[in-house]
Structure formats: structure tokens, C-alpha cells
Recover the amino acids of this structure.
């Protein structure tokens, strides 16, 4: 998103980004324009030859890729922890700094705070409102716990979470063996 907002050329990205965009964000013209110029460099792991052909100035990678050493041979590579989406603000700020676009990031966060403030004007006692975050995918239902991106936004808005989803990271790990989400059956769906 920062690349799109800063009008920086995205030369390539992992194939799943195209799928995510198509399935969830195809109405966002700014992202559509940015992705239209980018090449698909494959899934996990990325196709290193495809990446090299693009001659990127910078590669931003996730820590889960075993090919990070090979990527570093192609271009300067920064490894970020994308699995910890609860810390999305840190990821956005770090990406902005890497791209020299801290002003764009600051504007983005100012707008985010303004939207939270506007929401707060419309909701009395937001902590009394419980919001459930559930992902329904083919053959699977999962509850997002508090250490996730959407949960972080709900927290910033002052909204509450149902008891079944309001675990701390340690509590969720102990109860479910996972701190981010829990797969449940339809019978277990208690919002």
C-alpha cells in the first residue's frame, strides 16, 4: 500500500498478492494501477531467476523465506516479520523509512487517527460493544484472536471482543496452541 501511495514502481511481487488483490481489493484503483505494472515472481519460494531479471533496487521479504540469502545476492534485501500482523504499524513505518517515504506514512497515520476520532464521535461506550472477527474460508472457520491486524484496529477504536476471542498471546498459546487464530467447527461458532 505504501508503494502505491508513494507512487513508487513495484517491479515484482509474490503471486499470492495478485490473488489477494483480485479476491478482496479489486475496487481500489490505486492498488490496481500499482499491481498492473508488477510481475508475478512465483509463490513460496519466489522464482529467483524471475526476481533477478527485474533488477530490483530493493527487496522486502518475509522472515519465513528460506531464499533470503539468495535474494540478498540479487539486491539489498530487508527481512520483515509479516507473520506478526498485530504489529502492522511497525511494519508500515519501517517500510516507509526503507523507501524514504516517512511523510507519506505520517499522513497515512494522521488519516487513520482522524477516522478513529470520527468513529468515536458516533459510538458511545465503544468498549461495551463486542466485535467478533471470524474468517470463513473454503472448508474452514477461524476466529481471530487479539494478536492480529483486525483485532489491533478494533482495539485502537476502543471496541471490545467476545470472551472467546479476548485472549492475550500467552493465554491463546496455552489454550489453543496458536496466538493468532483458532480453527473451529460450525457447531463451535459462538460469536
Amino acid at each position: 500500500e505504501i508503494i502505491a501511495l508513494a507512487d513508487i514502481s513495484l517491479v515484482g511481487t509474490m503471486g499470492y498478492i495478485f490473488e489477494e488483490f483480485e479476491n478482496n481489493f479489486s475496487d481500489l484503483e490505486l492498488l490496481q494501477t500499482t499491481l498492473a505494472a508488477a510481475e508475478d515472481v512465483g509463490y513460496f519460494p519466489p522464482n529467483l531467476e524471475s526476481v533477478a531479471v527485474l533488477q530490483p533496487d530493493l527487496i522486502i521479504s518475509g522472515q519465513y523465506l528460506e531464499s533470503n540469502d539468495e535474494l540478498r545476492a540479487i539486491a539489498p534485501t530487508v527481512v520483515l516479520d509479516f507473520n506478526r500482523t498485530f504489529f502492522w504499524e511497525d511494519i508500515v513505518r519501517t517500510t516507509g523509512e526503507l523507501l524514504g517515504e516517512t511523510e507519506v506514512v505520517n499522513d497515512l497515520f494522521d488519516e487513520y487517527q482522524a477516522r478513529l476520532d470520527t468513529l468515536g464521535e458516533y459510538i458511545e461506550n465503544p468498549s461495551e460493544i463486542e466485535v467478533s472477527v471470524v474468517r470463513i474460508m473454503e472448508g474452514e472457520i477461524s476466529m481471530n484472536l487479539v494478536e492480529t491486524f483486525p483485532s489491533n484496529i478494533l482495539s485502537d477504536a476502543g471496541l471490545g471482543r467476545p470472551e472467546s476471542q479476548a485472549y492475550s498471546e500467552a493465554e491463546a498459546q496455552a489454550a489453543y496452541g496458536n496466538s493468532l487464530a483458532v480453527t473451529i467447527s460450525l457447531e463451535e461458532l459462538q460469536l
About this structure: The chain is about 45% helix and 15% strand. The longest strand covers residues 140-144. The chain has a mean pLDDT of 80.
